[in-house]
Amino acid sequence: MVSVADIVGLLVVVGVNTAVAALATRFLRVQLTTRWGTAIYIVALVPAVQLLVTLGLTGPLGLGPDLGSSLTVVSVAVALPFALGVAFDYFWMPSPAEVELPERLERS
User: Fold this and answer.
1) Per the count of CB atoms within 10 A, which of 28, 34, 43, 91 is most buried?
2) Which of these, 30, 49, 42, 45, lies nearest to 86 by C-alpha position?
């Protein structure tokens, strides 16, 4: 039987990983100028960072239930938040090229 604390812990892990994916995707889209470079870095780096965050949250902090297998953990705690975070950045946020910066920031 899964307790309420385990469910809340799992939701925290998924929420934090979703935020990490969205923020890392936005950062890479703003900093990199090529589309392929951005896509490759997003696919390679963001899940690795999410995996480290998952290990940190579920290991020492003990958040979340025992999901049974490593495939389930990667699916629920890394792949699902990765898809949500990247989708949030690409579909909800404006493209970095569309954002107008104040003149003071454009000159530097």
Assistant:
1) 28
2) 42
- H or E segment and range at residue 40: helix 35-58
Among residues 62, 60, 73, the alpha carbon closest in space to that of 9 is found at: 62
If you ran DSSP here, which 8-state letter would residue 79 be given? I
The tokens for 61 are 């902090």
Q: Give, for all 108 residues of the chain, the pLDDT tens digit.
A: 788 999 999 999 999 999 999 999 999 998 888 889 899 999 999 999 999 999 999 988 888 888 889 899 999 999 999 999 999 999 999 888 888 877 775 555
**Distance in angstroms (rounded) separating the CA atoms of residues 68 and 40:** 31
Largest CA distance in the chain: 59
How many Cα atoms are found within 13 Å in the side-chain-facing hemisphere of 102?
2
What does the alpha-carbon distance between residue 46 and residue 30 come to, in Å, rounded to a whole number? 15
